[in-house]
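Archive transcription. Copying these from loose printouts into the bound notebook so they stop getting lost. Printout 1 of 2:
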Amino acid sequence: MARWLWLSALVLCLDQASKWLAAAKLTFQQPEPLSSLLSLTLTYNTGAAFSFLSDQGGWQRWALAALAAVISLGILLWLLRLDRRERFIAAGLALILGGALGNLMDRLVLGYVIDFIDFHHPALGGWPGFSADGHWPAFNLADSAISLGVALVLLGETIVRRRRSS
């Protein structure tokens, strides 16, 4: 299933290009509203998802980079061993791999991950994951690809299990 690696490369390129544009055109932590629900806000995440571990002394950069590299290798090996009929799983793994590599590149080169997509609505304040003022933690295209990839892998695994039980 190496033929799906083009999708990983596309995600990686789009992610890095969008982060470059965000860093070049946006002012750090200065929201640029696109709509009542969405702003572009440049932030730097030195931690993991939802800024977990971001308040540590810097060791997390290398620990998270090593973890991302090991997981990326595992995903690549899994992708290469898939059957041709497992297209949803392959597409999902390719998206996850591209996103993981995009964030890994940031972490290795910059020491942090660039986030800039800011989804918000005051009515969502206090909901799980949202801040008191209704902001979801800022994210990027790599994060979106990873989330979509996980959904596709779960869908693909469900299809494979149904196929096997039939």
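Printout 2 of 2:
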Amino acid sequence: MSHTICVFCASSNGVAERYFDQARELGEEMARRGLRLVYGGGQIGLMGAVARAMRASGGHVIGVIPGRPDWAELVFPDANEMIYTSHIRDRKATMELKADAFIALPGGIGTMEELFEIVTLRTLGYHRKPIVILDGHGYYEPLLRMLERAVSEGFARPSLRESYHLSDSVRDALDYIESHLSKQA
């Protein structure tokens, strides 16, 4: 059975090319390994880069996007499946249900919110799905320091550290996920 990986990432085109390179590498490698992508459904930013690389490499892409008329031009037209939801909250819930694991690439406030929600749900025991922060360029270092501070100052339990895996490469991220999923089978 093919596993589905939810990727959270930027919808901005205004980021450095190195982030696009890693997003494309992720899409290509996921397709090569026979993994499916579920993501926010956009065709711009890192979202579009991952999705285009997946499709160009023969991968299966599932987009999930709120059905707002003003977002119609943002929708990735080559997705194998496009699911329209009534609200952004429904979008996140749909992606979570369809996913066997999660990867967070760099992104803005929306990406961070998605990452925090899925980590929170895991720490509260609502799921045991693997979560990877793929940070090949140090983007998340300040956030990770803040999480460590939350633990050291008693605002979060030490188990927070085990709720996600930090990776600096696509290969390590996918190896971690595949290893975790094979143990659950």
